């Protein structure tokens, strides 16, 4: 059999100005890291729910170089305010205001029966969605979410 190539094939990362930059998939020192950091933009996250799973996610964002926690949505005012204070983000009790707050991605972590509703609202606003498992309570809802997400053009 033929020998494998010495390096993996390159990957393309879109630059912010629309020009595609070629960056090797395996970095070769600081130059690679600088190139990737230059191309990666910071993502503003919003979290739906203020429970323990959401708390773990919010804590992990602190260690990301390309993500910030912008806001949290919850039903209980006291709990959401406490969560927001702990993680230095804006609290919301209203879904519309939360989705209009300038976030780019949503972490959906409320009770399971709410995953479909919140994920669909975020998809309809062209937001990226990371939904805690299960995606929905049945396969029909899951297929609807997948089909709607496929229709969208995300930036």
Structural account:
By secondary structure, the protein is an alpha/beta fold. It is 38% helix and 21% strand. It contains 6 helices and 7 strands, in the order E-E-H-E-H-E-H-E-H-E-H-E-H. It has a 5-stranded parallel sheet with strand order 5-4-3-6-7, sandwiched between helices. It has a two-stranded antiparallel ribbon with strand order 1-2. Strand 6, helix 5 and strand 7 form a beta-alpha-beta unit.
List keywords for this structure.
155 residues, 5-stranded parallel β-sheet, globular, alpha/beta, single chain, 6 helices, two-stranded antiparallel sheet
Please render the helix and strand layout as text.
Blueprint: E1 11-14, E2 20-23, H1 30-39, E3 43-48, H2 52-61, E4 67-73, H3 77-87, E5 90-92, H4 95-99, E6 105-108, H5 115-124, E7 128-131, H6 139-151
Parallel strand pairs: 3-4, 3-6, 4-5, 6-7
Antiparallel strand pairs: 1-2
Helix pairs in contact: 5-6
* Mean pLDDT score: 82
In one word, what is the shape? globular
Q: Percent of residues in helical segments?
A: 25-40%
Question: Largest sheet, if any?
Answer: 5 strands, parallel
Q: Which strands sit side by side, in order, in the main sheet?
A: 5-4-3-6-7
Order of helices and strands: EEHEHEHEHEHEH
Low-confidence stretches: 7-27
What count of helical segments does DSSP give? Answer: 6
Structural class: alpha/beta
- CA radius of gyration is 19 Å
> Tally of extended strands?
7
Beta content comes to: 15-25%
Cα-to-Cα separation, first versus last residue: 42 Å
